[in-house]
Design brief:
The protein has 129 residues and is mostly helical. It contains five helices and two strands. It has one domain (8-126). It has a two-stranded antiparallel ribbon with strand order 1-2. The longest helix is centred in the N-terminal third of the chain and has 37 residues, at 8-44. The relative contact order is 0.20.
């Protein structure tokens, strides 16, 4: 992004635009990283008996606050499926397919992926390299 500004009013407008583009890039990068974590969890970690738990994976951008941007990811968003997802995630057990800690493990392993997604999305939204 290249911008030439002169005067206080134009400077403020240019900075406001940059701020909004930056927030949009962060929001997009976090959501894309969360979707990749959920996909990794579904493909290699979630225990599968009937497929309901795996099908309940979700990502959702939450309402932005002034100082934060939050994306929620998980399995079993609400109701009985949420309780079941928590039970299976936290209970060490032997599964024919998958394992416990099916979200925690891929989330911790995704540190570099999250940073890469954020960097790419911010560069795209702001034009900064």
């Amino acid at each position: 992004m290249t911008a030439q500004v002169s005067g206080d009013e134009q400077t403020i407008l240019a900075l406001d635009l940059l701020r909004e583009n930056l927030r949009e890039g962060i929001r997009k990068g976090l959501l894309e990283a969360a979707e990749k974590v959920i996909t990794t969890a579904k493909e290699g970690y979630v225990p599968v008996r009937y497929g309901w738990l795996r099908a309940s994976g979700y990502t959702e951008p939450l309402e932005d606050q002034e100082q934060s941007i939050v994306v929620e990811l998980g399995f079993g968003k609400e109701g009985p499926s949420r309780d079941y997802a928590l039970f299976v995630h936290e209970r060490p057990a032997r599964h024919e397919v998958g394992q416990d800690k099916f979200l925690e493990i891929p989330a911790f392993e995704a540190g570099d992926l999250i940073l890469d997604e954020l960097k790419a999305a911010v560069q795209e939204s702001t034009g900064l390299k």
